[in-house]
């Protein structure tokens, strides 16, 4: 049996970066199709969803957020153009990261700050804090 050398920090960061990009792809796909099964794999069950765009705090747990998504008409059903974009991914350590992303749903253009944790070898969103602008 041959032993593999431990991953260097650069290799580990590259692997984690690729894993986060894959999770973000599922995140964007889940929002575009309103697929809460896919979103449930992306979000940790204890994740927080928060926004204060209109001057009041909106804070939901996943048990409150997923029914909102399920009631939404999927952008995919309207053939909306996708405007998903990863702006940045930053690691705070080996099991913590922050992604800044953008996407559009209907008339709203979102900037999402997604905090990730890595548990059991898997990256999941533990907090989604976002702002949106209405597009004209």
Structural commentary:
The mean pLDDT is 92. The chain is built from three helices and six strands; from the N terminus they run ααββαββββ. Helix content is 31%, strand content 42%. It has a six-stranded mixed beta sheet. α1 packs antiparallel against α2 (36-42). It has helices at residues 9-33, 36-42, 62-71, and strands spanning 43-51, 58-61, 85-93, 96-105, 108-119, 122-134. The chain has 136 residues and is an alpha+beta fold.
Throw out a few tags for this protein:
single chain; 136 residues; alpha+beta; 6-stranded mixed sheet; 6 strands; 31% helix
Topology:
Blueprint: H1 9-33, H2 36-42, E1 43-51, E2 58-61, H3 62-71, E3 85-93, E4 96-105, E5 108-119, E6 122-134
Parallel strand pairs: 1-6
Antiparallel strand pairs: 1-2, 3-4, 4-5, 5-6
Helix pairs in contact: 1-2
How would you briefly describe this protein structure?
With 136 residues, the chain is an alpha+beta fold.
Percent range for β-strand residues: 35-45%
**SS-derived structural category:** alpha+beta
Spatial strand order of the main sheet: 2-1-6-5-4-3
Number of helices: 3
End-to-end distance, in Å? 62 Å
How many strand elements? 6
């Amino acid at each position: 049996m041959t032993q593999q050398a431990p991953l260097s920090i650069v290799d580990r960061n590259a692997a984690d970066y690729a894993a986060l990009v894959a999770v973000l792809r599922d995140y964007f796909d889940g929002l575009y199709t309103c697929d809460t099964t896919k979103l449930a794999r992306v979000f940790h069950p204890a994740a927080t969803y928060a926004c204060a765009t209109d001057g009041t705090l909106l804070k939901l747990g996943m048990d409150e957020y997923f029914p909102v998504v399920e009631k939404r008409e999927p952008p995919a059903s309207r053939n909306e153009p996708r405007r998903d974009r990863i702006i940045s991914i930053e690691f705070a350590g080996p099991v913590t990261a922050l992604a800044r992303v953008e996407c559009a749903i209907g008339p709203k253009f979102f900037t999402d700050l997604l905090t990730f944790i890595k548990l059991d070898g898997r990256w999941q969103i533990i907090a989604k804090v976002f702002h949106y602008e209405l597009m004209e």
